[in-house]
Design brief:
Layout: H1 2-22, H2 33-46, E1 57-61, E2 64-65, E3 71-73, H3 74-89, E4 93-97, H4 116-125, E5 129-137, E6 141-150, E7 156-165, H5 168-173, E8 176-178, H6 189-193, H7 195-199, H8 206-210
Parallel strand pairs: 1-4, 1-5, 2-5
Antiparallel strand pairs: 3-8, 5-6, 6-7
Helix pairs in contact: 2-3
Organism: Methylovulum psychrotolerans
Protein name: FlgO domain-containing protein
Pfam families: FlgO
């Protein structure tokens, strides 16, 4: 009897330990957002369907929540800021803005459908390209889609998609925020397109100045 018990104990322990392994959860680790953002910009530059001369002016808009384009988050803001920095370091003039622009609604001819206010904004700044996108937070990953749009033809000239692990930092950054709410660094579409805004163009937001070469 003693021998049987002695043999059963190790077997039971092995079964218990293996069972614990089945229910063990593994914490998702954060990716380096800076690296992801810079790699995404490099990928979009490689995929350009037309030439974009250095020193061209690019407007980078804050990434929006795919389920509600009036909402963003610290995640959407910091990733768009990093994208703006990457373009700036690549030799382009950059203005960062927080605008509820949907770069995924297309007309039948394949061009982007933009609001009149957005068109006025682009005309005001004489920007060559508009860069923006959306993100969809998931349980283990956040999925980001980015697009570059020619402001003249309204055609998409480059795009890329990235998947970012939802580690503890990424989850913390995902708290929803209204577009243009406290912490926003740019103008709303209506403000930027208004005559009053044009009259006070010299008083650009501080964050806008930090990512823009001299435009005078």
């Amino acid at each position: 009897m003693l021998k049987i018990s002695t043999l059963l104990i190790p077997a039971l322990l092995a079964t218990t330990l293996s069972g614990c392994g089945l229910f063990r959860t593994y914490e998702v680790k954060d990716a380096n957002l800076v690296t992801v953002s810079y790699d995404a910009v490099g990928d979009m530059q490689k995929r350009l369907t037309q030439k974009l001369p250095k020193n061209s002016l690019i407007i980078v808009t804050t990434l929006l929540n795919v389920d509600n384009l009036n909402k963003t988050s610290a995640f959407g803001r910091i990733v768009s800021d990093q994208i703006a920095s990457a373009f700036h370091q690549s030799g382009y003039q950059v203005i960062g803005m927080e605008l509820p622009i949907d770069l995924f609604i297309m007309k039948e001819d394949g061009s982007l459908q933009l609001s009149d206010d957005t068109k006025k904004l682009l005309k005001r700044y004489h920007a060559s390209v508009l860069v923006g996108g959306v993100y969809a937070p998931g349980k283990k990953n956040s999925y980001v889609s980015l697009r570059m749009v020619d402001t003249i033809s309204k055609a998409i000239i480059s795009s890329t998609d990235v998947s970012i692990p939802m580690g503890p930092d990424a989850k913390l950054l995902m708290t929803p925020k209204e577009v243009g709410s406290a912490g926003a660094r740019g103008e709303t579409v209506a403000e930027a397109a208004s005559p009053e805004a044009a009259a006070t163009d010299t008083a650009k937001p501080a964050a806008e100045k930090t990512t823009t070469d001299s435009l005078e």
